[in-house]
Amino acid sequence: MLSKAQIKRISSYKESKYRNQDKVFVVEGVKVVNELLNSSYEIETICALKQWLDDNSKRINNKANNIIEVNEDELKKISSFSTPNQVLAVVKTPLPREVVSKDKLVIALDQINDPGNLGTIIRIAHWFGIEDIICSENTVDQYNPKTIQSTMGSLFRVNVSYHNLKSYLQNLPEDYPIYGTIVENGENIYEKQVQKQGIIIIGSESHGISDEIIPLINNPITIPNFSINQRAESLNASIATGIIVSEFKRRG
Amino acid sequence: MLSKAQIKRISSYKESKYRNQDKVFVVEGVKVVNELLNSSYEIETICALKQWLDDNSKRINNKANNIIEVNEDELKKISSFSTPNQVLAVVKTPLPREVVSKDKLVIALDQINDPGNLGTIIRIAHWFGIEDIICSENTVDQYNPKTIQSTMGSLFRVNVSYHNLKSYLQNLPEDYPIYGTIVENGENIYEKQVQKQGIIIIGSESHGISDEIIPLINNPITIPNFSINQRAESLNASIATGIIVSEFKRRG
Q1: How far apart are CA B237 and CA B240, in angstroms?
Q2: Which of A19, A139, A165, B185 shows the smallest number of beta carbons within 10 Å?
């Protein structure tokens, strides 16, 4: 059972302001909490229905500081979703980490606003063995509830960090490959020689890559448009990411 | 200005039951309505803010049977979105069309429930010049408001039709290539020889391709998993579609 104060506190974490203040975020649902329990993230509180607690009692032992049995009404009050799924966990936000894989492929996101797109891109990175995603400071929060849901648990396997993207790129060695998806004048990704090391910059669908970032791209790329009369205007940002990363990976 | 009856009628089209009954669907926002006006779809009613009507008066002349100026409150009442965007159109549902491109690539969707995924897949088809998408009868409605929004207007450029997928596949010529994404025992899509003609079946993330459809696949394919210890479980259905279609198209 939850007190009114607990309901108020956990509900407040739907907003980044309160998440940042208390240095926590919220994970929901059987699938994503399952991935959380398999990770090294520190869990502050688990709120779950009796059935889930019974089924998982051994696994959660020593894993969470507080374990609270809730009913469906209480779960609905603290959940971000219209149909909550058995369990919700409050998790301690880990300290920001350095980029760990500069000698491999890294994805950089420039102003991705849609939380679902960010989550899907984190999931793509996980699938393709990319360890780091660098986000511009105006990219949506990785701990947004919709982002977390779209990652399907991949959030705990990929290192997502926020930077001033321009400064970050300017501080890279001069010959470091910086790939950027440019609709016009990019080199056909199917034909381009690509390296195993480098940064792939993905811009937002509505704004593309920012004007201040474009001059820093030394390898402009594009996905060819096969639509009739080239009428299709763009691909969703996460679809473009999937196709480009696949192109890098298939060539080893 | 809208009457109460008009508000009630247009609002009801958020549900497929009422859309089917009146054989209409609803398109919203500047971008998608713009694509609608460039299409041959028949428009029943346009409800828009004064500014939008002033800006588009020449274009909408003779294009819609009813043109109604609304204020922001009225627009909010009939909109499916929390932040409506200037204009909403009620459109007559076209008659179901035959599959037009059996001699080319066709996408078939088996039980795709997520409206955003369906919309994103329609957008992928448009980008890659695929003219037909065949949906199983239990795939989400193409006229779901979230689907339409995710297509970004590509809905009007791709022929989406609903079929009993099993019967449809059984009635194809015996050597017609039926590609299906199977996680285990599929042939690596990067290495597989593919043809210019055929059907690519995409299953839902949660259930994969149905048991009754799997035996009909004569070309099982898979996207290799590069994750550390292969821990990543799956890709989003629309991401998998984007990567596979890209693989077919890059090889001409």
Answers
A1: 5
A2: B185
